[in-house]
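agent> fetching stored inputs for the zinc ion docking request
agent> found them:
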Amino acid sequence: MSMVTCELCNQTGDDLSLREAVHKDMGKKWVCGDCWTNLYDKNSMIAGTTGGGGTFSCPGGCAGCRNA
Ligand SMILES: [Zn+2]
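agent> prediction call returned; pasting tokens
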């Protein structure tokens, strides 16, 4: 019913269970399971919801950034 699109590989479907990932360079993305695993494996993702231990700086063009 509701088509969703992975913001990384642009795979589209109505049965994609997108997951929220915060990419180190691209900020917050909704990605499919494959991409999520990929990001995780490559350590390209800012993991978890930390209380502010890390220094996350949005470079600017991050539309979905709500970390502020
Ligand atoms: Zn994907």
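agent> quick read of the result: Residues 6, 8-9, 11, 31-32, 34-35 surround zinc ion (CB under 6 Å).
agent> awaiting further instructions
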